[in-house]
Amino acid sequence: MPERREVCDGMKVVVQKFGGTCVESEPNQLVTAERIMEARDRGLHPVVVVSAMGREGQPYSTMELVKMVRRIDPAIEPRELDLLMSCGEIMSTVAMAHLLRAKGYETIAFSGGQAGLITDDYFGQAHIVQIEPSRLLAALQDGYLVFVAGFQGVTPVHQITTLGAGGSDYTAVALTRVINETPKLPFGEELEVEPLQIWKEVNGIMTANPVSLENRSAARTIPQLSYDECVSMSRLGSEVLQQQAAEMAGRHRIAIVVKNFRGGEGSPSTRIGSHVQSPRDDRVTAVVDQPRLLVFDLDKASKRLALQIAERLERHRLTFYEVTTEAAGVRFAVRPVKYRDVERTVREIIAQRGAKAVVSSGDFALVSLVGEALRQRLDAWAVQAEGILAKAGVGVHGTNRDDISLSYLVREADRRKAVECLHRELIL
After folding, report:
1. Pairwise CA distance, residues 411 & 389, whole Å
2. Burial 325-361 (b: 16+ CB within 10 A, else e)
3. Which residue from 311, 297, 414, 306 is spatially nearest to 361, judged by alpha carbons?
4. What's the average model confidence in pLDDT over 186-207?
């Protein structure tokens, strides 16, 4: 155990979050370790949040852990599923803490619960309700490099929960928030907190998902992003930041920098914050696409039925889009997660009301324009965007909008064409 630090002028802390790709293999773990050591070399005290190793198909990814038990029986209790899914982050957190210890640093690894993240008991999509950071702060005071397993917390009665897809972002933002709100460490040392660092395998946040473009290099790094743009992009399907994390960052004005973990400090990056450059009137910030949506249409317009369905989906913490169509009726589009839960919920409500619905799984996609330039000029942008889509032969099957976004429901077969033409005409 390192000796307790003497009280001095202050301690500079930085929360660093590393995604699954950053820790999926030994070479990547070594690069990630270099990013952590660089921060320490600059006099910072890192609190490192780690995702599970890799993605689907790799041995220790969350999806492979889930597949392991679902081969026994697809139905598994949510409580037990969360217990299992928390293991991926714990393994990668211990591995990275051990790697840095082997390099001569004093390290300590915490689960989400041990780091003080208290959640409600909505298994699979829990919300953080309280943060008790005493252990984490004491570890910083004692001079440790602190590692925290992302994507998880515990209920007040110590049941392990997970925070939904991308939940390690939520962990990192929550820890940055509580450290920001803690003026001093337990023994009186003042804290100064650097912007949250989100390390990914790409150079910050891009103007479009490169895999949705014919020429992947056409996607460019966005230097600066407002909180509203970040929340809107997350809601509409971008892998910028988990939506809960983006909303918390905006509420508490937590500055964030998104970087490529291979590039280090000097690489291109995206800064998320309150102050952004004045947007160009003729350019949007990004085109976001959400593939393979579950879409259902009600046979008649009914505000009461639509509200009932929306309330039920919100209760189940499912992201959905109520789209406007030319035909009379109500159309909902839901992200391609928990298809069965959504479909069952919708059919139950519809059956109770004696209504009918047509459900399409994966035939549609949502393509959205996002940017501060759209604020208070949505109608003018809509005319321009719809003209571009029509010229490209892309049919629009519904629209959705908020203050800084315009979204178009298109056929999945037309999704990449829609992204391509909107990106080419309105961003490049």
Report:
1. 12
2. eeeeebbbbbbbebeeebbebbeebbeeeeeebeeee
3. 297
4. 91
Q: How confident is the model at residue 7 (pLDDT cuts 50, 70, 90)?
A: very low
Mean pLDDT over 227-238 rounds to 95
DSSP-assigned letters across all residues of 340-379: HHHHHHHHHHHHHHT--EEEEEEEEEEEEEE-GGGTT-HH
C-alpha–C-alpha distance, residues 418 and 412, integer Å? 10
**Quick check: helix, strand or coil at residue 12?**
strand
Domain ranges across the chain? 11-201, 286-426
**Which of 330-334, 369-373, 415-419 comes out lowest in average pLDDT?**
330-334
Burial class (CB in 10 A: 0-12, 13-18, 19+), 229: buried
Structure tokens at 415: 């999704």
Whether 417 contacts 365, CB under 8 Å: no
* Mean pLDDT of the 119-143 span: 95
Query: DSSP string covering 259-277, please?
Result: EETTT-TTS-EEEEES--P
Confidence category of residue 277, pLDDT binned at 50, 70, 90: low
Structure tokens at 12: 């500079």
Q: What CATH number is given for 11-201 in this structure?
A: 3.40.1160.10
Question: From CA 322, how far away is CA 265, in angstroms rounded?
Answer: 41
Mean pLDDT, the chain, rounded, equals: 90
Mean pLDDT, rounded, for 217-235: 95
> Among 176, 183, 172, 192, which Cα is nearest to 252's?
176
Q: For residues 112 and 133, what is the distance between their CA atoms, to the nearest angstrom? A: 11
**Tokens linked to 202:** 């790409």
78-102 vs 62-70: helix axis angle to the nearest 10?
Answer: 140
Average pLDDT over residues 6-14: 75
**Residue owning tokens 């839901």:** 334
The count of residues in the chain is: 428
Phi, psi of 360 (to 5 degrees): -125, 125
The DSSP H or E segment spanning 406 is strand 405-411
Q: Residue 134 half-sphere exposure, CB side, CA atoms within 13 Å?
A: 1
Q: Which two tokens stand for residue 409?
A: 């429901």
What CATH number has the domain spanning 286-426? 3.30.2130.10
286-426 has the same fold as 11-201:
no
